[in-house]
């Protein structure tokens, strides 16, 4: 019977040792998963920050480009309206001179 008790105690000791090894392995696996999750979260945060900064930069560039384009359009419009106004003025002066000529009022005396 003492051999059976010895064998039972030895088996119990091996089982306890295996259980402790499995428990330690599970703890290490859980810690590794936790570390990987933290790394992924940090990486995602960094990527989000970079994307946000890139989007803000592109938005500012587009806004600046739009502002410059609008200013250029205003300058072209002002130039066109100035030329049109000058043309209308010249046409009116020409019409006025034509009327004066046909009425004989433009003769130099």
UniProtKB/TrEMBL annotation:
Region Disordered, residue ranges: 1-109
InterPro entries noted in UniProt: LEA1/2/D7/KIN2 (IPR039624)
Record field: compositional bias (Polar residues): 1-10, 22-34, 49-63
Domain of life: Eukaryota
Identification of the protein by name: Late embryogenesis abundant protein 1
Species this chain originates from: Brassica carinata (Ethiopian mustard)
